[in-house]
Amino acid sequence: MPATEESADNKEEKVHSLSANQVESFRLNGFLTVEDVLTDDELEILAKRTDLIASGKAEHIPERCIQQESVFRRGEREVDDQVLSVRKLHMLAAHDEVMWQHATNTKIVDIIADLLDTDDIKLYSDQLFMKAPETGSAQPWHQDSASWRDIFPMDLVSAWTAIDDATPENGCLEFAVGTHRWGVLPRTTRGQLMEELEDGSWPIQPAPLKRGSVSFHHSLTFHRSAANSSAARRRGFATHYMRATSVKDESVTDTPKVPPFRQVRGRSFAGRV
Predict the structure, then answer these.
(1) Which residues, at least 6 apart from 236, have a Cβ–Cβ distance to it below 8 Å?
(2) CA-CA distances (angstroms) from residue 53 to 40, 76, 164, 257?
(3) What does the angle CA 13 – CA 16 – CA 18 come to, to the nearest 5 degrees?
(4) How would you class 41 by CB atoms within 10 Å of its CB: exposed for 0-12, middle for 13-18, buried for 19 or more?
């Protein structure tokens, strides 16, 4: 077979879970959606554990891992339901076996391995966004690596698993196409470029998800989510992955305080994360 024909055929060959075209789409756009990754049984386990932790009744989860919406923290609104008052749960995989099993789920990690082009993978951390009906707040445009600026290369990938259907009405993620190629924007130029994102000068792609589907995004891709204006919940569990060969700059101290990085797959390397 001629080399050109073999090359064309290989475009659809899978590495672990993705086709070469899917990997190329991620590299071009900075995000990728994969439908129906988790089963109903896996989702039910994840949803029940999520609400148990949010209720404050999971004694093995430190209180610092549970963050309420600001309207409840400031006392502007009375808490009627503890679970629905929570904005975010974070660093769960370090404390809870169910959440760790999700972070190491082969169906997710196979995709991460394709996108990072390695089987040597560590978990940076995790965040579970609750976004309750009516009180679930918006998250403005941001780049994850602008906060995680002690990890190099700035080439991490997040897997955002929809525990509930995520829609434009309840605040699904939106991505600014291709912005992972901008690098980390300094504060001096961020405002001007944010105007382009707000006024439609740059292509924006909403990412609605059915429950059990997962969106993957690069740590430099600008993304946001609107407030939940609906009566439907929108829980999404984001697990953040990096190559085990990444380097942590210990001189950078104003970054999130996360648990020790844990091996997800493959090898660990001396002097690296």
Answers:
(1) 128, 129, 131, 160, 161, 162, 163, 164, 166, 173, 209
(2) 20, 23, 17, 20
(3) 60
(4) exposed
Superfamily of domain 15-265, CATH level 4: q2cbj1_9rhob like domain (2.60.120.620)
Whole-structure pTM over 0.90, yes or no?
yes
Check: CB of residue 23 under 8 Å from CB of residue 199. Answer: no
Token pair of 149 as six digits: 């600026």
- Burial of 164 from C-beta contacts in 10 A (0-12 / 13-18 / 19+): buried
- Do 133 and 84 touch, CB atoms closer than 8 A? yes
| Residue-wise DSSP of 75-120 | TSS--S-TGGGEEEEES-TTT-HHHHHHHT-HHHHHHHHHHHT-S-
Q: What is the pLDDT of residues 209-231, one digit of tens each?
A: 999 999 999 999 999 999 999 99
Residue 119 CA from chain centroid, whole number: 19
Q: What is the DSSP string of 192-229?
A: HHHHHHHTTSS-EEE--B-TT-EEEEETTS-EEE----
Q: Where are the domains of the chain?
A: 15-265
- How far apart (Å, rounded) are the C-alpha atoms in residues 145 and 91? 17
Model pLDDT, residue 6: 36
